[in-house]
Design a protein that fits this description.
4 copies of one chain form a homotetramer.
Chain A: H1 9-12, E1 21-27, H2 32-42, E2 50-59, E3 64-73, H3 76-79, H4 83-89, E4 94-100, E5 116-120, E6 123-133, H5 136-145, H6 155-165, H7 171-181, E7 184-192, E8 195-200, E9 209-213, E10 216-220, H8 224-227, E11 232-236, E12 241-246, H9 247-252, E13 256-259, E14 268-269, H10 271-276, E15 282-283, E16 286-287, H11 288-302, H12 311-314, E17 317-320, H13 326-339, E18 344-346, E19 349-351, H14 366-374, E20 375-377, H15 379-382, E21 386-391, H16 398-408, E22 414-419, H17 441-444, H18 449-456, E23 460-463, H19 466-472, E24 482-483, H20 485-488, H21 500-504
Parallel strand pairs in A: 14-24, 17-18, 17-21, 21-22, 22-23
Antiparallel strand pairs in A: 1-4, 1-10, 2-3, 2-4, 5-6, 6-7, 7-8, 8-12, 9-10, 9-11, 12-13, 15-16, 19-20
């Protein structure tokens, strides 16, 4: 019998958007691999198709460092299901880890699983990377012309070559030289024999948090990875910053920090607040839960629930799409209820968390069946009601349409769909895996909300405006602190130099 | 590497209670196996350790029936991960299926996976069973003395022997004779060469619904299994009823129905409303969602949220334990908010649905780590607030204690735990797998709510009273329609004749 | 990726004949399960598709016996690959084991894997069976009419029912009663809580040896299973004998023995000497190696190697088909060389023991490719020579034909095929899995040796005559000591009462 | 349950010697991957722990080449058990393959599985390598100092870097430049987008054959890989030769050929004739079967079977150790029988080809049990006889000692062990994986044959002399055509520059 191939990306998300990665690093802890395991577990939602850990183990007898690695396709819990891997193989006091959204299947793609581990003149080197570089084409060609061979099609290998090729003698300077050459979005942990580096691009596109666990230092894409191991969140790795942890720094408790490239204006990915990050995390130094509820609130202000004319009308039912819009729906409802005390927040959709393969009968639609195995309606809640569904975004529109269809079967009076983000009109080249522009429903309908709503089968459709979205998020500097390219086509970092191989990676 | 052993019972539930089974049956449909697959998928929460399907295939050439079977340990999606099993192996127009909470591991226990398929003088016979018989000791000894050999330790095999041994000539009468001899709780589907039977014990302890899908008839433990295949819910199989579907009955659209034993007073398992059944199902001919919200409402009436004295106090935060107390919390909150407009329903706990193996570091508590991999708090919601947690039940108290500990780390002002059921003081012998009486925390503390609360670390603890619970559920006849033995030690069906083997089954 | 399904039957044999089973039993040894594992390993050639072990473990605390079981599809080494199964699960001082040729795949067939373990009024009972009953139809119907249900289609379950139904009070008498009702070929080990039984049908069709290992007693289909554990061969279980080992007998060193049914004339399966048994075993109280070489010798006497006229002719090359005809070829060659000193025994065929799936290119013959992955010729040995191939039997002729084709490519002058058995013309109903009569090449050509040879593409073909075969085997009583039905259609045990289910078992 | 980890190296060999690899290449065949699969299957004995195939697929639409790859730990039949891999993934008209003896287990070592596939300025490049370089230390350091990073510890990656770094513009010249820098033993197939290269070191240490299949060209380590696909053996790739196959060459039927480095004297690995290569192959342009039998013959001349004084003595029994000494034993016996007509070649050892995990009982020797699961004696053949065992070599002596012990249990009169090679006294650095010098039994006893024989427990022990070995092998040029370092410590190719990493590789 064929072994089941869980499509884990489907397990907890119902969108055709995929984050690229979660990264984690820890220095100076005898349980480095176990803590990394838990950290990756908490970051599972950022990448569900592969996971890996590299540890640096000091071999006292030979006064040398040994790098241990284990990585594979699958969820974190599956890749590390054998506890002997954590305790017997992944020995050592420092570790980095990675969860990845990636392509599965062919033995080849296995090479792309992170962390990467290589050997160069400076010893061992391992890297975990979240984000996407945008001048890869130029860099790859340049390196190939110099006689460099590539074993993968990843940005990460490219960075490693740049480090190995640096003429600088100090490791820190090698890294600074390498990172001064790359353009794009990156939040990176690098482990060497006796140091741990955390680096973030000058725009701060992807998050990277810095924490402390007793005498150990930790880094993670989101702070929920700190909570699970009882680590304390200190601050973010700043955009353009490189933090270096070594034995000496641990003694003093201070940390060395460097600046990469010219410090640019911040360009945080606003989608982290809308959808990616877990509500219990802090990203960009703000609690996601708080921002996401403010987004919900602003959505309610812009497009309140319908009809308050008749007593019957007033009993509008607001429902969430579990679990992705739970928090935004709370924000939405708490605002609505201020003026309509009869409105109710209800559970109108039940979600099954057991989702696997979908078998279709002849003449049946596969995606329809998939939605049905994931969601069921609570008819008593919806029937004959004015129903407001809050969802976080519409990408292709396929799932939304099927979800609306499902809800319509419960015979609500009206269905009003409120989206807690503006229309998605353009792909992301900084680390999210969106469909191409043509596939985006907002493009197919020229952002005509009415038409899209008609297509989806709802009574009304409303998106959050860009303005209100920008009002919902916190600012360090100014309104331009965020990348909103997927809503505006306004790409803040040049995408001219994108490697074809790099573009294609998402196609498989 | 050792393959991961998902402990699926943990995936979506956080209690040490396990239902025994979900059953499903369909007659006269060319896609019988695929529809059963989907039905079982919807019943996954009723039994997550094994699954199976048997189909009856008519062999035109030989004018004979062939029974096909596939069953194994694992989730439904894993057992049937190879689509060729459904389409090439499980051919035929009728099918029954089963999901089971059972013991894993040893090759022996494999025998206990359902459906059971046997061959007897009347041809092929397969059975799916939810519930537990209570006169097994007597029946087993009687049969063994007659020279019957047993290949399993299950009630189900016992029933099959009784059927095979019946001297009646008509199959229907054989079944009636067999079921007149057994005592206990059972909801059963039986497939024979050309008939499908659905049988329910005279007390109606476990649910069993009857539906229709075009020209096919279907049976399922809960109606959510009808929704997923677009079947229409007709009514319940009545307590003590045996419905027979055959070719003739399908033609006429009518169905033959028999009465098993003396019709007794109803004794529905009240825990189905509290915890087991999905909120989107109807059981005992009432919507679970509706009953569960009424339970929440009554809990609020009995033990409202604390302090409304100061404006600050008023901002009580009500949180659910996802996903099991979602619905009851809604009912609770909607009542509370009537008198305290400042109370808020918030998401205070984030639940990870990726839960697997837990590795412990020396000196760490395994269960603690397990709770941490499952739940994280949203600190901004809880910090410095009076927090009301609504949960459905407390069994051993272990998980509750750890959950409270986790919440306390978020530094709420107070933590009030509201339980939407009375104290659990006695095991169930009718199909739920509770711990023994000694392990139940309510027994350990003589039901002293204050002491239990202190043990759990909450500011206050309140259970729903038995009276209010009884007010929350619907009645066909009278207040005694329900079995409440786990709250009252009042066992409505004799448990004297329980087989030791049967008792032990839960121990492995 | 689909997991590989080794077809182990192919690994070491190249014939379309399959033995039905190997059985093993041991009493009173703390390493019972490990010794059974090794015993089954040595019997692997008798059944390569499934294996199992049952142990009886004494629970001192409760003064009760517990039966442990582990069985699965696959080779012995694969089924018991986890050493924890042998040491932690299969505890106890007594054990029986089984290797089985059976059908794979469907979850259903799993039920047919032995040993069988059941519970009856006398306690636990487990059975390992080699052979085939021939009055199953009658017995099955009789039992079904008495209300017995069947969970498998095996003879073994039938025997177990007969034991459970016996009205005798003593266990020994129950068994005697049961075995007095069955007709056919059987060599059986039965384990009860505190006894081990070894039973052989009155004809002694299949072998069963009795041995001793220090204070333990052992039984096995072939004595090679004794050698691997350093046990000492005592004698065979006699045809019609039932040996009982219990605690008392061990103390005294004596053994209790019973006679089943009327002692019949012996009807040993002569094919055990020709092909099934390992040459290093003793079966029917004679060394297989010795008999098989005598068979080879007689074949040489009847049909010597060709041409001794020219010096060139004399250099006839005799080759074996590894490994099945190795021993017979030796016997053949040692006879030939007496009169032709120039004849040579050579290695003309190299056999690969790595054989798995065969992929075919369009237009290619699958079986041809299979033979090519198994065999290659040593051209230098065959080219331009008169080649004599000694093989043990021809069944369908398919493999022989392809093998000859392969050899012809090495351009020998002539190819003479010598078969160390008479033409196979009739199926076996006593435990061998032959093709149907129609598929047997000897039938398709009316036993016309010349035509068959032409079909196979050889210069000449010769079978061993029945007379010479009978001269090669040892006799206790007289020439009729052997069953030769597959060569003669003369079935010594009635096959009238064969159950259809039983017949079909080989079809899957 | 833990999945079984077949130790396939044990399956067919009983020595602690392992060859490093089998390589295969094919150009211009629509079934390239399937033919490579069969070719690798035939080369399975050269490396049983991992296998892989790379194909070059022409994408007509984009006029580009795509490289497909699949490789994994395991036997060929297991790695490619899913036929979809061969037909759907590994598309393309050219392919190279590899079977590898390598270290298993850790996820890291996976990187070392061949073929290697990389991308460089010239496009795609894949490499299969048999042999071992000896100036790796220097080359690795040089490359690292130039900024090259290494992802594996293999020679093969080193070669690929040298090719990528070459300043030559023509691919052929890049390769020539790269191979002019490496020293050691190598037989290599390289696949580029549209060319196939076969290269052999100037000493011709490891074999590499060149063949033709209709319009396709093929390369393989041994000619048995040609036989299985019906390809025709043309000649060897000559020592120091690089053959290039491209579209043009196919048209003309000619092939381009280059010379690498200075043509040196030949240094064929003599162990290929003694043990490694299959007897049905041609290596170094001579049939292995022929050479190996001559070796056996010379062994007989040097050390004939004992005692011909009494008639009883004369009945000396010569036995082989299946399957590794089958051919040499024939050569030995055919010589012996010339002067002692009463000597007999017998099957004294039966070998089980099912070998897996060995479980030991307390106080038992694991290796002893392993030998017992592999071999059993045929007592009737050995008892009371003078037995001559012919074996190919003694390395550590552990297995030989246990084998002798087993044979002694059959109570032969005398045991004479004849080894068809000289004492092994030194490790191989050219691609065989021998134990270290200290572990070699011939060193432990200063090559004192008598002492070694005593240690092994035989009546007498004899090795083949170096002189007679050299007489047995064919010569192109002169007696120094062979590397005999393992018998003489005379290393013909400098081993000064061996990388530590490279040395260590065999230790894991």
């Amino acid at each position: 019998m064929k072994k089941i191939k869980l499509k884990p990306a489907e397990l907890n998300r119902h969108k055709s958007i995929h984050s690229n990665c979660g990264v984690f690093g820890i220095y100076n802890n005898p349980d480095a691999s176990i803590l990394t395991y838990y950290g990756l577990h908490a970051l599972q939602h950022r990448g569900q198709e592969a996971a890996g850990i590299v540890t640096s183990e000091y071999d006292e007898k030979n006064d040398k460092y040994k790098f241990n690695i284990h990585k594979d396709h699958g969820l974190v819990l599956s890749v590390f299901s054998d506890d002997k891997i954590l305790t017997n193989v992944l020995k050592g006091n420092s570790a980095i880890g990675h969860t990845r959204y990636s392509t599965t299947g062919s033995g080849d793609k296995r090479n792309n699983i992170q962390p990467f581990k290589v050997n160069f003149k400076g010893g061992n080197l391992a890297l975990s990377h979240n984000g996407n570089l945008t001048n890869t084409k130029y860099l790859r060609e340049k390196l190939q012309n110099e006689g460099t061979l590539f074993q993968t099609s990843t940005d990460s290998e490219l960075i490693l070559h740049l480090i190995a090729k640096s003429k600088e003698s100090k490791l820190e300077d090698k890294l600074l030289e390498a990172f001064s050459q790359v353009i794009g979005a990156f939040s990176i942990c690098i482990l060497t024999d006796d140091k741990l580096f955390a680096i973030r691009d000058p725009y701060g596109v992807r998050p990277l948090a810095f924490g402390k666990l007793n005498d150990s230092f930790v880094f993670a894409s989101e702070t929920c990875a700190f909570d699970i191991i009882n680590a304390e969140y200190i601050r973010d790795v700043m955009p353009g910053e490189m933090i270096v942890i070594d034995r000496e720094s641990i003694k003093t408790g201070s940390e060395k920090s460097y600046i990469i490239g010219t410090a640019e204006k911040y360009k945080h990915c606003i989608f982290e607040y809308i959808y990616f990050s877990r509500p219990d995390s802090s990203v960009f130094e703000e609690k996601v839960d708080k921002v996401r509820r403010k987004i919900g609130k602003n959505l309610a202000i812009e497009s309140p629930a319908p009809g308050k004319d008749t007593p019957e009308d007033k009993k509008t039912v607001v429902i969430n799409v579990p679990d992705s819009s739970n928090t935004a729906t709370l924000g939405y409802f708490n605002e609505i209820v201020k003026t309509n005390k009869d409105a109710r927040h209800e559970i109108g959709l039940i979600r099954s968390h057991y989702v696997g393969r979908t078998f279709i009968q002849p003449g049946q639609d596969k995606r329809k069946m998939k939605v049905k195995t994931k969601f069921n309606t609570v008819k008593g809640v919806l029937e004959n009601r004015k129903v407001v569904i809050v969802d976080d975004s519409i990408v292709r529109g396929t799932t939304s349409k099927l979800l609306v269809e499902l809800i319509q079967k419960a015979e609500p009076k009206e269905v009003h769909l409120k989206i807690s983000s503006p229309p998605v009109i353009s792909p992301c080249y900084y680390g999210m895996d969106f469909p191409t522009a043509n596939e985006l429903i907002a493009n197919q309908n020229d952002q005509n909300t009415e038409e899209i709503g008609k297509h989806l089968g709802v009574t009304s459709l409303a998106y959050l405006s860009k303005e209100k979205l920008m009002e919902s998020v916190p600012y360090k500097h100014e309104k331009t602190d965020y990348c909103t390219a997927c809503f505006t086509k306004n790409y803040p970092i040049s995408i001219e130099g994108l490697d074809d191989m790099n573009k294609n990676e998402f196609d498989d």
